[in-house]
């Protein structure tokens, strides 16, 4: 390795799924049909109401910088959304519009995490979350979790792993890759424990809205002393627009604003204007139809995988992922994913992209494609397993 | 200060001009006319060809994630631009599309700068540049510069200030706030010196294109072993779209790609499609008309300020700024700016936003407004000075 590379770049691993994606593209270029169940991006286009709001803004020709914290009217609408959806009051001064949840993580950790400080998070978890910690030369202290805690951290686990170096804890619910929503009480206790310990609590809520049982509770329902990361990408169907938001504890407002001025200047203007339409009645009605469709897909995929012999210790109730134990078929889930792609043209994500906790026994299926396509994928998967 | 705030946030100062902006808005709300000469954003709207390309993309409804490094066709077009404009060949693998120059700085420094390492840069310089260094817990080692080196670093200064802690040097040309372009030979020698010392060279070229004499030379003309930061914001008139680019030395390609995947996922899709039209013949013709207009404004403002008694030791040849010595009128340029705004409704940026090197003697005028408006501003300024 070049001596000029920053040391942090060693700790940041590339996504294994990228190798699969590269191979999938090659196969497709050869004319082979590949069913994509590896992608964390909904197949639905952005709702038309949002697209039209974006076009209206562009037609004005005025695509200038907005304030660093975001368009005041968008921050206002986000605050209203917390009132109507969660019955929670949030001071809009605490709300920052960001370039996706990525930008929200940058601000939250940039404002709070010192080098060598540690953040507790579940294993498995989304790899970017620990990589953001490494970006600021902190340490992601992953805690193995299983179905007994819905693959989520608990107050007990947080206490058990807390050291002098610990800055805080991160909980992502619904979780990527497991799709599980943390129990309301479990979240509340985790937050109170972190607050008692004097740390920072980060709540990754980017899959909120995509929940197929009781609504997920926001961390803000239990405390104002939390960072909440959210996004218009997943539930609102705005992936490529790169717009999300961050809510910070009061004491972090000034530092977050300074960082936003310096790190982004501002979030893309037309994306922010488009997002203003995300809370319209028509948009929300369309999103509700999509949520119902995702739920049907979840049910289809869950039943199909169980029938094939995969173990899914807990039925996922959110996001668009199923994290399935494939140890009945392989001791190396990455090889399993590579072989499945090669033999049958079905792309999935290996467990090792999400940590080391039993990662070789797990694979993630994303139901970001239609039931018709998934039905074909299941036939191919069955054929692959029976051959193996 | 809260003990939970990251220490780096202390080192990052807010922009003093924000205070002026806040006051300017209050005055405008009271019905007072304020002439804005503090803003680093062109008054021109985005060229129509670019806006239309953005609208076309939105109408497809497919605003999905692009690859982390950017749309392949946009990277290709950027590579072509280096060939046609600078006669320089750049491997498109080295080109990363980013959310503005801000995103380019994040990647470049994230991939190369370790905590406690130092970066040499001129004082005065754009404050975000040193703040990016602080974001990664590095140190911005500013070197006082003056008109004798066109307010730019020289090879001699770099050698003189180089220590074991130095990671590299940053040169921004045309410079913000001074508007000066580095002499071609001076740039070449600076790059060779940094290369010989085994450091990293960062060339901030975001005002390229806005040059009113001989074309500015890109650092890539002298070495492939450089980071080049550029943007569609200034010359191409795409501020609010948040799209720029970064070119890295070959050995940094993999690390930069990993960081891009984790830090942004990707740059806004519709902004990238819009930027595809930035290199069209029609667009470039329109940009050339604007460049000529900026040149006329520069000439007008330069003459007017000299006539009023401001000292401008070197006529700026790029960007849209004039950095003027106001020590004939005040020993505190920040107070001068506040008083001028209050008395006459003219907003300018105090020198202390750009460093400490004689900062109290300087103010920055941005000619991002029309000659007609600037003419009124000069009348008001004259009145203010004569009263004072």
UniProtKB/TrEMBL annotation, chains A, B:
<keyword id="KW-0032">Aminotransferase</keyword>
<feature type="coiled-coil region">
    <location>
        <begin position="277"/>
        <end position="304"/>
    </location>
</feature>
<comment type="similarity">
    <text>Belongs to the class-I pyridoxal-phosphate-dependent aminotransferase family.</text>
</comment>
<feature type="domain" description="Aminotransferase class I/classII large">
    <location>
        <begin position="32"/>
        <end position="381"/>
    </location>
</feature>
<dbReference type="GO" id="GO:0006520">
    <property type="term" value="P:amino acid metabolic process"/>
</dbReference>
<dbReference type="InterPro" id="IPR004839">
    <property type="entry name" value="Aminotransferase_I/II_large"/>
</dbReference>
<keyword id="KW-0808">Transferase</keyword>
<keyword id="KW-0175">Coiled coil</keyword>
<dbReference type="InterPro" id="IPR004838">
    <property type="entry name" value="NHTrfase_class1_PyrdxlP-BS"/>
</dbReference>
<dbReference type="GO" id="GO:0030170">
    <property type="term" value="F:pyridoxal phosphate binding"/>
</dbReference>
<keyword id="KW-0663">Pyridoxal phosphate</keyword>
<dbReference type="Pfam" id="PF00155">
    <property type="entry name" value="Aminotran_1_2"/>
</dbReference>
<dbReference type="InterPro" id="IPR015421">
    <property type="entry name" value="PyrdxlP-dep_Trfase_major"/>
</dbReference>
<dbReference type="InterPro" id="IPR015424">
    <property type="entry name" value="PyrdxlP-dep_Trfase"/>
</dbReference>
<protein>
    <recommendedName>
        <fullName>Aminotransferase</fullName>
        <ecNumber>2.6.1.-</ecNumber>
    </recommendedName>
</protein>
<dbReference type="InterPro" id="IPR050596">
    <property type="entry name" value="AspAT/PAT-like"/>
</dbReference>
<dbReference type="GO" id="GO:0008483">
    <property type="term" value="F:transaminase activity"/>
</dbReference>
